[in-house]
């Protein structure tokens, strides 16, 4: 049995957490329904609009750099049926 941390929050804080949870579930369902091509397009869109790829150059020996410059581009190519 876990600790119920939510009971210590104000009604406003609980409402914000619930709204975020609902938004997360909506996003999960939306992405699950995408075709491979649509998912690849979404990944490219998100990568162009997030900050972390610009923090690292290709070849930087950090996980975020490898994810941004190696893993995600490879995933996009595979989703699009490219090698």
Task: Please describe the structure with a list of short key phrases separated by commas or semicolons.
83 residues; mainly alpha; extended
Topology of this structure?
Elements: H1 11-32, H2 36-48, H3 52-55, H4 63-79
Describe this structure as you would to a colleague:
The protein is mainly α. The chain has one domain (9-79). Helices cover 67% and strands 0% of the residues. It is built from 4 helices and no strands. The chain has helices at 11-32, 36-48, 52-55, 63-79. α2 (36-48) runs antiparallel to α4. The longest helix is centred in the first third of the chain and has 22 residues, at 11-32. It is extended and about 50 Å long. 1% of the residues are buried.
Number of helical runs?
4
Q: How many strand segments?
A: 0
- Estimate the mean pLDDT confidence: 93
- Helicity range: 55-70%
Sketch the major β-sheet.
Answer: none
Order of helices and strands: HHHH
Number of domains: 1
Determine the N-to-C terminus distance.
Answer: 48 Å
Please give the radius of gyration in angstroms: 18 Å
Outline, from the CA principal axes? extended
Strand content: under 5%
Stretches where pLDDT falls below 50 for ≥5 residues?
Answer: none
Structural class assignment? mainly alpha
């Amino acid at each position: 049995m876990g600790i119920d941390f939510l009971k210590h929050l104000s009604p406003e804080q609980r409402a914000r957490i619930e709204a975020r949870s609902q938004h997360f579930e909506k996003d999960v369902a939306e992405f699950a329904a995408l075709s491979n091509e649509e998912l690849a397009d979404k990944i490219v869109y998100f990568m162009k609009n997030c900050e972390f790829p610009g923090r690292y150059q290709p070849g930087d020996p950090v996980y975020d750099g490898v994810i941004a410059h190696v893993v995600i581009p490879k995933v996009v190519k595979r989703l699009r049926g490219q090698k």
